[in-house]
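During the second half of the funding period, the structural biology subgroup turned its attention to how the target accommodates small molecules. The most pressing case was heme C, which had performed well in the primary screen but for which no bound structure existed. We therefore specified the complex as follows and requested a full 3D prediction, including the ligand pose.
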Amino acid sequence: MNIAMKTVTRFRHSSESAPRPPSRAPALSPNPHSALRTPHSLRRRFAWRLSVAVILVAAAFSPALPSSLHAAPVFQGADTLLRPKNYREWVFVGSSIGLEYSPEADKQKSGKSEYKNVYINPAAYRQFAKTGRFPEGTILVLETASSETKNEPGLQGSFQKEFIGLSAAVKDRKRFKEGWAYFRFSEGAGKLKPSAKPAEKSACYDCHRDKGATDHVFTQFYPVLRAAPANKP
Ligand code: HEC
């Protein structure tokens, strides 16, 4: 925008400092189409067009990016996390089906397995890709989906049917003394709350601290994060 404004000013200046034709006031001019007026108004018109063009070009290259690229956790009060919006525009880091830590290793699952899709806010992804560390303000969202299995002639396999749950992990040392806090937005039957309080430490944090491969995060299950440049030799 600065460039555009400078250009406008420069052109105004140059057109004003140009010698003014005596017939500038139209009412006094004997001939409104006087040849003397033409270069002046042409210059003005050109200056206007040029400055509009400069403004348009400046706007096209301005650093205004889609807001999801700057997504960060949004809190209400001390520790209530608002349910993230547009997380499906973030970086998708991995998905799993029926994955869970369970004492019964070969338990036959009666119900259908859930899919889990995990996303990270793009700003945190960029830092992680550079440094291999999750910065303050990292937010990861885990969305669960029901599964459906097809087993018919010509079509077999499993796919994600409906989204059924949402939770989030946030790194914020100033707010949470453990560094990470965990939030569950699911309210049963596919319903989601607009905001959530941090879950009990024993309900979420402990397992993440003990079993997550990188700073409480389950990077062992996220190929996109393992493939990030900082993790490559
Ligand atoms: C017994 C272990 C365990 C407990 C307890 C647990 N999680 Fe997780 N969590 C996992 C595993 C394993 C993953 C990897 C993703 C997957 O399952 O596909 C994960 C992933 C996540 C992620 C994605 C980001 C990350 O840290 O990897 C979020 C968000 C999450 N869990 C939230 C929660 C919340 C909220 C709770 C408590 C209500 C919770 N978790 C409790 C094991 C656990």
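Two results from this model are relevant to the next phase. Residues 15 and 43 are 7 Å apart (CA to CA). Residues 1-37 have pLDDT under 50 and may be disordered.
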